[in-house]
Specification:
alpha/beta, Rossmann fold, GMP Synthetase, Chain A, domain 3, 2 domains, eight-stranded mixed beta sheet, four-stranded antiparallel beta sheet, 20 strands, about 30% helix, globular
Length: about 425
Amino acid sequence: MERLQQTLARCMRIPFYKQRFAACGLRPEDIRTLDDVRKLPFTTKQDLRDNYPFGLSAVPLEEVVRLHSSSGTTGTPTVILHTQHDLDEWANAVARCLYMVGLRKGDIFQNSSGYGMFTGGLGFQYGAERLGMLTVPAAAGNTKRQIKFITDFGTTALHAIPSYAGRLYEVMEEMGIDPRRDTRLRTLIIGAEPHSDEQRRRIEQMLGVKAYNSFGMSEMCGPGVAFECPEQNGLHIWEDYYIVEIVDPQTLEPVPDGEVGELVLTTINREAMPLLRYRTRDLTRILPGECPCGRHHKRLDRMKGRSDDMMILKGVNIFPIQIENILMQFRELGTDYLITLTNLEANDEMTVEVELNEFTDDYGFLQRLTKEITRQLKDEILITPRVKLVPKGSLPKQEGKAVRVKDLRKTLI
């Protein structure tokens, strides 16, 4: 409650929140108990876009030491600001997660996540360093080099998105490397993209590791928001960093523990950019009862999906409108398109089918057009989709709202 009061005081330095409070007829002193959090206004991703880039800062810009950003649906990214205190607390939170699953000083931690604006790289880097582990900032890609690092450096813990963990095993097989016999790997941290418990168990069996699910989002700092313990029966969410609510996405009223709804988070340990009742759009539930591990922080069930249309592919957040914006720039294309997501041999794949405006059998022209569309889509969404140009009228038509996305990935709830 003390941290919440401090957060509310910081929010009063932000014009956006001052206006929201005034519109609600609310004052910070009206929040006397944790249940009073329900009186606070919600914050959405669109609010972050509308206040791009620094409109939600609660401190002077000279006190900000880093920003991270994620892509937006119409080209405007969301920006998250951090003071040095924020970065220190973020490192502490990630270190706590890694410690919880048994990692200690003396472990060798390899991070195969992208660095830069994506928070997964630096978040795990600083958390692992805070714990005192030798860290290998391998970054994303170059699978044979990743494997060489794992074998040569004696890597004991690896952070990777689930689909890439499967790819690592495939290449190990091609190279004649048995991860159980030829490496010291024993702990895998996975997250950033939807995956089933079945997929996790398969990864554990292939690599001979225990794989722990991680939940985070850049708006809350990045990785380290919630994490599995060795019991692997839900993600402990750190209640000294966040006030946790589960609400009905339609009525926005709270739902009982155990019932699925939208996860809403309020930061209570951040200086630069506190967020009140942030609608994550992730659908989950609070698991009732206590965890056998002995920790009392609430546990979240694995994410069931999203209350909006965002897709997560290879750890990248993608909105259909981003793809549409690119496609509609090409006069040669019609207005109908279909995005299909599949999971082939543990790798998420995207196929974009789009209708041509006019028929042509000029193979060279079609090849050049496909290549240019693919290039522009990769620049926008950061992954390379498979682009298929199809004749006009060949895509299935729907009565009412068009179906733009078919997610054929097998994800168990």
